[in-house]
């Protein structure tokens, strides 16, 4: 083989980095821990890392549409990280220092990147400052590589907008199977990290937007307890339900990111102060335990295992997983009689949507007003913008029915307060009661069906790759728990992941 072609193959396709000593480091599929060791032992530089991911974005993104925009300063930031590490500056050789991350396009950055939630209506807007989580990432030394694509406005514009579609980038594609469901709205974050276009990513979730794309793109997603991570500077949907969390290839990678972004933020003071009590001393990495399943009580709602495409395949696969959980020391509790729980979940779904669209108008108007410059200053402006730019935003094809329904709301009055009270009671009488009566550490469901139980109450969840259907479509297993139960969920998820090691890279 021609030596030039061999070098191209090793550096571009295999993702091997050649350092000054001539040793090799494989970037593709490398974990944060792997990268950390390679950086700190001069087997890899941050510049090489960023160059590799930029090459992969150029190679794969025209098909996958996982990245909406690349940071023009990424290589400069990588060079600075290398210089800081060489000088042994404090914090330059720990955690995420020198490691590239993609942010969902609704997370604000005060740099040359846009923050548009996938819409032309926010293209060119100028944010007043970095989002709270971005400030923490920068302090941790992470390199902001760019913005990940997403379902436009996080699915808040229209019920007709496909998951993973936005006007700026078009339709995102599942890297495992082009025809497979990519899920949303943190679609680009899941796709990009699954396809090795970046080391780690951030997504956001209101009602499934971290857990669902993680499940369908064979990656790990952590939906933190609401308030554990700041939402300041994030284009909002529902402040009562919005949360920011990691989407990564492994549980350990996701925990590295979680450790970097949790904590109090004065710009999201009420929620982050309340949730700060849940943050463990010495962080979350300590819960990556090989015996994390031992003694854990896991609830298995049997209804969640039926009704899916290839349900017989799933049933067989999950029975195998349940055997693994038992073998690792977990106590499985079959939740068979769920009549009252199911009734509460069904009644919640309609109330949840009614509450969210009221909250959306209020929160979005507040976000838009604080922008330094913006093509739109209110939800009403965004509706008009979309009509005026109907070809760009595909209004005739996808519409903007959720936008219009939200605009008709008039804030939080007596009926809305009652609605919110009903949701709080339903969460306590449904999910919390089920967990406490059965003394559960987590509820376990296939794919991301845990979402219906944990969204309205702001509870945490984690998805781990669990297998592939006969056509190659990935699916995950999800674990949900009570507020602040991230340590238990991490122990459970990590032990399951290490015992099964199911995830495989997409056949790109």
Automatic annotation (TrEMBL):
Signal peptide residues on this chain, from the entry's feature table: 1-22
Domain of life: Eukaryota
Alphabetical list of Pfam families matching this protein: Amidase (PF01425)
Domain Amidase: 48-448
Keywords: Signal
Protein name in the entry: DH200=94 genomic scaffold, scaffold_3241
Gene source species: Coffea canephora (Robusta coffee)
Taxonomic lineage: Eukaryota, Viridiplantae, Streptophyta, Embryophyta, Tracheophyta
């Amino acid at each position: 083989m021609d030596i030039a072609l061999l070098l191209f193959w090793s550096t571009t396709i295999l993702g091997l980095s050649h350092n000054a000593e001539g040793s090799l480091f494989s970037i593709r599929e490398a974990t944060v821990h792997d990268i950390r060791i390679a950086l700190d032992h001069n087997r890899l530089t941050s510049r090489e890392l960023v160059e590799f991911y930029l090459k992969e974005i150029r190679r794969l993104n025209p098909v996958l549409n996982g990245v909406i925009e690349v940071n023009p300063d990424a290589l400069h930031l990588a060079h600075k990280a290398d210089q800081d590490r060489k000088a042994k500056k404090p914090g330059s050789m720990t955690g995420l220092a020198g490691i590239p991350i993609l942010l969902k396009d609704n997370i604000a950055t005060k740099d040359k990147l846009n923050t548009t939630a996938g819409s032309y209506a926010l293209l060119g807007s100028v944010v007043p400052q970095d989002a709270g989580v971005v400030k923490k990432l920068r302090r941790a030394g992470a390199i902001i590589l760019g913005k990940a694509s997403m379902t436009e406005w996080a699915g808040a514009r229209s019920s007709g907008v496909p998951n993973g579609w936005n006007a700026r980038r078009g339709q995102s594609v599942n890297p495992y199977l082009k025809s497979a469901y990519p899920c949303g709205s943190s679609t680009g974050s899941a796709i990009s990290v699954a396809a090795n276009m970046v080391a780690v990513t951030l997504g956001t979730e209101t009602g499934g937007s971290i857990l669902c794309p993680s499940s369908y793109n064979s990656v790990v997603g952590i939906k933190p307890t609401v308030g554990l991570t700041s939402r300041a500077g994030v284009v909002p949907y529902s402040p009562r339900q919005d949360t920011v969390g990691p989407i990564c290839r492994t549980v350990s990678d996701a925990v590295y990111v979680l450790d970097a972004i949790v904590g109090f933020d004065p710009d999201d003071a009420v929620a982050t102060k309340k949730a700060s009590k849940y943050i463990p001393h010495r962080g979350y990495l300590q819960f990556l335990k090989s015996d994390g399943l031992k003694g854990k009580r896991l609830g298995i709602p049997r209804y969640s295992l039926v009704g899916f495409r290839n349900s017989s395949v799933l049933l067989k696969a999950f029975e195998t997983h349940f055997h693994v959980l038992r073998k690792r020391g977990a106590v499985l509790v079959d939740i068979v009689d769920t009549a009252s729980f199911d009734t509460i979940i069904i009644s919640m779904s309609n109330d949840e949507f009614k509450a969210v669209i009221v909250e959306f108008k209020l929160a979005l108007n507040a976000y838009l007003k604080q922008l330094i410059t913006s093509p739109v200053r209110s939800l009403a402006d965004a509706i008009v913008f979309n009509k005026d730019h109907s070809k760009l935003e595909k209004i005739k094809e996808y519409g903007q029915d959720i936008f219009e329904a939200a605009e008709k709301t008039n804030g939080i009055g007596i009926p809305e307060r009652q609605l919110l009270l009903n949701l709080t009671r339903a969460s306590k009488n449904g999910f919390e009661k089920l967990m406490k009566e059965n003394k559960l550490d987590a509820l376990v469901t296939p794919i991301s069906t845990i979402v219906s139980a944990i969204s309205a109450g702001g509870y945490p969840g984690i998805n781990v790759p669990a297998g592939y259907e006969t056509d190659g479509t990935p699916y995950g297993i999800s674990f949900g728990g009570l507020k602040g139960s991230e340590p238990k969920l991490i122990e459970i998820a990590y032990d399951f992941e290490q015992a099964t090691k199911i995830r495989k890279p997409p056949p790109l």
